[in-house]
């Protein structure tokens, strides 16, 4: 069997994103034992850096061994016991998945639904809490990767406390791309993934848990349904000063995450957020010039994941295949009811650059000219250039 040499790809899909060479070099660092004192300092560094990015002082802030989906499952299985009611916002694939995990735990998922591409209104969450009796938690997706919709969170934490419910947030796509204010927004359990705006290979799930949530977990009537994802067991491994064996951590991935987090720290979160906004604005301007429209309404779009409706005269699958085969560019298609109807274009972390935006728009123009659905070359590139010539966008809001 020959050595595998992957083709060159420009990763502009919904994940994974491109990875900085420093992160790849970190993965080639010689292994240490997962209880080696030198490796434990790496774990401590990660906890410190993650607290900064999550904007939290939570003691329990770790990198769970597993992808973002493991973070989702861990958040639910540790909190939800059989019979518990959980209000779940469902407006895309990942809200649907949250509800499914709740039900697999024996919980009751109270679905608060919105059309795909729309947000879950806070008033609808409040209504569900008021009419549903005791509710264990509210679970929302901050950045719905299947639709590009950005869910407001700032008012939900206080609402959860009024109803004595925990607040669980999926920040898989949002962390390090837009503000995630765990403490200020009253989030009790927040999880993410490494392969999106953190620009690290997939394999770890950053998680942070409030003291309020930890107290709830310690009062469980039944054991956690998962041994591997049991926070009460994992805590012993991540507790500074008393690291105890739980499982063999993915050493090289931990090295990679530490380096990726260092890159985030060096850039600074305000600058990183501004970069994502600016490149998104240029991409959206260029796509609009080609006749594409955004799926989420104005003010609800994500800057790191642009979801556009594909015009009926353009063959979704054919164009995506041409981008991949002729240009080495990967973008994402639609999921579920949006299959064949939308494109999902990721400008996440290392993938979010002006050069990548212009490369993609140029490729789409060339495909459009050859296919006959574009008659005027340069319109998308000119629109993007105008966006880049403007002053930086206003400060990122909630």
TrEMBL record:
Enzyme's top EC category: transferase
N6-(pyridoxal phosphate)lysine carried by residues: 196
Coiled-coil annotated spans: none
Single Gene Ontology BP annotation: glycine biosynthetic process, by transamination of glyoxylate
Chain positions recorded as substrate binding sites: 344
Cofactor(s) essential for the protein: pyridoxal 5'-phosphate
EC number(s) given by UniProt: 2.-.-.-
Pfam families cross-referenced by the UniProt entry: Aminotran_5
Superkingdom of origin: Bacteria
Molecular function GO terms recorded: alanine-glyoxylate transaminase activity; L-serine-pyruvate transaminase activity
Segments passing through the bilayer: none
Alphabetized UniProt keyword annotations: Aminotransferase, Pyridoxal phosphate, Transferase
Keyword Transferase included in the entry's annotation: yes
Positions of the Aminotransferase class V domain: 34-334
Family: Belongs to the class-V pyridoxal-phosphate-dependent aminotransferase family.
Protein name per the record: Purine catabolism protein PucG
Originating organism: Nitrospira moscoviensis
């Amino acid at each position: 069997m020959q050595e595998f040499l992957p083709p060159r790809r420009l990763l502009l899909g919904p994940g994974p994103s491109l990875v900085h060479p420093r992160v790849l070099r970190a993965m080639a660092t010689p292994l240490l034992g997962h209880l080696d004192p030198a490796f434990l300092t790496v774990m401590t560094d990660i906890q410190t850096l993650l607290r900064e990015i999550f904007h939290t002082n939570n003691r329990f802030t770790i990198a769970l061994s597993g992808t973002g989906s493991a973070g989702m499952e861990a958040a639910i299985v540790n909190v939800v016991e059989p019979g518990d009611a959980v209000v779940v916002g469902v407006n895309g694939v990942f809200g649907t998945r949250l509800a499914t995990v709740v039900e697999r735990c024996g919980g009751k998922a109270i679905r608060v639904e919105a059309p795909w591409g729309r947000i879950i209104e806070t008033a609808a969450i409040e209504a569900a809490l008021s009419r549903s009796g005791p509710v264990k938690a509210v679970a929302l997706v901050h950045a719905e990767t299947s639709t590009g919709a950005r869910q407001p969170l700032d008012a939900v934490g206080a609402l959860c406390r009024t109803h004595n419910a925990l607040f669980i947030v999926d920040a898989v796509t949002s962390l390090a791309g837009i503000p995630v204010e765990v403490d200020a927004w009253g989030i009790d359990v927040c999880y993410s993934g490494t392969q999106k705006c953190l620009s690290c290979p997939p394999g770890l799930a950053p998680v942070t848990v409030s003291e309020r949530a930890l107290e709830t977990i310690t009062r469980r009537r039944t054991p956690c349904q998962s041994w591997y994802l049991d926070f009460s067991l994992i805590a012993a491994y991540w507790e500074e000063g008393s690291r105890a064996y739980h499982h063999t951590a993915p050493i090289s991935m931990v090295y990679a995450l530490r380096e990726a987090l260092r890159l985030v720290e060096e850039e600074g979160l305000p600058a990183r957020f501004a970069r994502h906004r600016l490149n998104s604005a240029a991409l959206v301007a260029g796509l609009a010039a080609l006749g594409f429209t955004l799926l989420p309404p104005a003010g609800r779009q994500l800057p790191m994941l642009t979801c556009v409706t594909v015009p009926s005269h353009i063959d979704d699958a054919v164009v995506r295949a041409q981008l991949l085969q002729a240009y080495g560019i990967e973008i994402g298609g639609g999921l579920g009811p949006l299959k064949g109807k939308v494109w999902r274009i990721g400008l996440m972390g290392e993938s979010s650059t002006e050069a990548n935006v212009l490369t993609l728009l140029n490729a789409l123009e060339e495909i459009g000219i050859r296919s006959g659905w574009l008659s005027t070359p340069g319109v998308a590139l000119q629109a993007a250039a105008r966006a880049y010539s403007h002053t930086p966008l206003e400060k990122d809001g909630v």
